[in-house]
């Protein structure tokens, strides 16, 4: 499907989605969010795609937030709809069974930072800047920032970012747990795609199960979450990939995954 504000490429089982509105620093308007939703759907249905990398066009921004010009025209009911759309798309991203990786090549602010929070893994270039600057606009984060940020970095760090509105550089973001690694700008995309290919080479049902267990478990008590893990672990023994993976180990050969 052709997109106006996204570039979608697939190679070696890895899809790359580039948010492509460089003149607006890749800000997310309604159309871009709707296109993201359609792209995520498409990727979810394509069994050949085993990982997703998300990045921003140009060398300045990953995503500089929700589109402020578009938001400035919204009333309260429309703002609720806009936040609901952002929440729906980011939840869709979290629900993808394949790994999702943000390659943060520049500003990841507001909705852009929130987009990274909905991804499984985040890698940043030395040029990356993270922040939740909504208070500068008289707003609060609206695409999950007050909640996912707190879960990712803890309440005090989340409060520092959200209440001051200040940006942090890539090294600080890494120290806070907002990204895993910081690499040279020209190496970022390949670094993220390399991680994506690694995950894509592992047992797909196991990867999807592990992602689901970690995600669902975070909202449960430890006892309930461990119950979920036992179910997930046992469930894999009914499928072919776990049998193949263990057999391949014992036969000292690489596994041939069927994804079942
Ligand atoms: N929405 C719409 N347009 C944006 C934008 C945004 N979030 N961020 C940048 N742009 C536009 C600018 O308006 C500018 O357009 P023009 O050339 O037409 O004037 C262009 O992108 C380039 O930006 P700047 O000239 O400002 O570039 P800079 O290098 O001087 O500054 C910046 C870069 C620090 C990222 C600055 O652009 C900035 O502060 N942007 C806004 C960041 C922000 O507040 N994000 C949060 C949005 S609210 C949100 O996301 C709510 C939510 O949770 C749902």
Strand order of the largest sheet: 1-2-3-5-7-10
Using the 3D structure, state the CATH architecture of the largest domain: Alpha-Beta Complex
- Please indicate the percent range of residues in DSSP E strands (runs of 2 or more): 15-25%
SSE string, helix = H, strand = E? EEHEEHHEEHEEHHEHEHHHH
CATH homologous superfamily heading of the largest domain = 2-enoyl-CoA Hydratase, Chain A, domain 1
> Distance between the terminal alpha carbons, to the nearest Å?
28 Å
Mean pLDDT: 97
- Estimate nothing, just give the exact number of structural domains: 2
The coarse silhouette is globular
Largest sheet: 6 strands, mixed
Radius of gyration: 19 Å
Structure overview:
The chain is of the alpha/beta class and 260 residues long. The chain folds into 2 domains: 6-200, 2-enoyl-CoA Hydratase, Chain A, domain 1 (Alpha-Beta Complex); 204-250, Lyase 2-enoyl-coa Hydratase, Chain  A, domain 2, CATH 1.10.12. It has 11 helices and 10 strands. The protein has helices at 30-45, 68-71, 76-95, 111-117, 145-153, 155-164, 170-176, 188-200, 204-217, 222-236, 240-250, and strands at residues 6-11, 14-19, 51-56, 61-63, 99-104, 107-109, 121-125, 129-131, 168-169, 181-183. The strands form 2 sheets. It has a 6-stranded mixed β-sheet with strand order 1-2-3-5-7-10, with helices on both faces. Strand 2 (14-19), helix 1 (30-45) and strand 3 (51-56) form a beta-alpha-beta unit. Helix 1 packs parallel to helix 3 (76-95). The longest helix is centred in the N-terminal third of the chain and has 20 residues, at 76-95. The two termini are 28 Å apart. It binds acetoacetyl-coenzyme A (CAA).
């Amino acid at each position: 499907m052709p997109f106006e504000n996204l570039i979608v490429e697939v190679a070696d089982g890895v899809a790359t989605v580039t948010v492509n509105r460089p003149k607006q620093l890749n800000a997310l308007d309604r159309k871009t969010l709707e296109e993201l939703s359609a792209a995520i759907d498409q990727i979810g249905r394509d069994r050949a795609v085993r990982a997703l990398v998300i990045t921003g066009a140009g060398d300045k921004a990953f995503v500089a937030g929700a589109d402020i010009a578009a938001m400035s025209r919204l009333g309260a009911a429309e703002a609720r709809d806009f936040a609901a759309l952002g929440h729906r798309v980011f939840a869709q991203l979290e629900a993808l069974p394949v790994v999702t990786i943000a390659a943060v090549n520049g500003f990841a602010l507001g909705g852009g930072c929130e987009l990274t929070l909905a991804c499984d893994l985040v890698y940043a270039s030395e040029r990356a800047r993270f922040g939740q600057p909504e208070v500068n606009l008289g707003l609060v984060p609206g695409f999950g920032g007050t909640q996912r940020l707190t879960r990712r970095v803890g309440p005090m760090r989340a409060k520092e970012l959200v209440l001051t509105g200040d940006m942090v550089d890539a090294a600080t973001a890494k120290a806070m747990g907002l990204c895993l690694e910081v690499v040279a700008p020209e190496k970022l995309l390949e670094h993220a795609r390399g991680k994506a290919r690694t995950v894509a080479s592992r047992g797909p049902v196991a990867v999807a199960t592990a992602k689901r267990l970690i995600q669902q478990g975070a909202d449960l008590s430890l006892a309930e979450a461990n119950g979920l893990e036992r179910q997930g672990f046992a469930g894999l023994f009914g499928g072919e990939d776990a049998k193949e993976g263990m057999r391949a180990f014992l036969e000292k050969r690489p596994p041939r995954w069927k994804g079942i």
